[in-house]
Amino acid sequence: MTPNAEIQDLKTRMHVEHGPLLQGSALYRALGYNTYAAFHRARQRGDIGVHIFPIAGRRGIFALTEEVANWIIKQAGIVEDGAVADSQEKEKEQSAPHA
User: Fold this and answer.
1) Is pLDDT of 91 > 80?
2) E strand map for 1-99
3) Whole-angstrom Cα distance, residue 30 to residue 92?
4) Per-residue pLDDT tens over the stretch 22-53
5) How far is CA 76 from CA 3, 7, 29, 51, 96, in A?
């Protein structure tokens, strides 16, 4: 399977299974946390990696499924038409010491 096909397959599977929003255990497990407590500690540190938000009148914290899928793809280093590779290269350039 090509990287683009893998990416689209992941996004499609996540969207079919969860819809446009992730919440609760689906959210924290997709982000690699085994427990809500670990997710909560990372949230308090501001170290989640994706934009999370409350929804008025609903309990819990939410994230966009596609954003979480993109985060997983980036963490895995899967390249989609060079987009992930380009962003990783920019990060390296920004963190490199300037002469």
Assistant:
1) no
2) 21-23, 62-64
3) 26
4) 999 999 999 999 999 999 999 999 999 999 99
5) 11, 11, 15, 19, 22
Task: Domain ranges for the chain, please list them.
Answer: 3-95
Q: Mean pLDDT for the chain?
A: 84
Task: Compute the distance between CA of residue 70 and CA of residue 77 in angstroms, rounded to an integer.
Answer: 11
* Vertex 39 angle, CA 55 and 46, to 5°: 75
> 44: exposed, middle or buried (C-beta count within 10 Å: 0-12, 13-18, 19+)?
exposed
Q: 85 pLDDT exceeds 60?
A: no
Predicted confidence at residue 97, as pLDDT, reads: 56
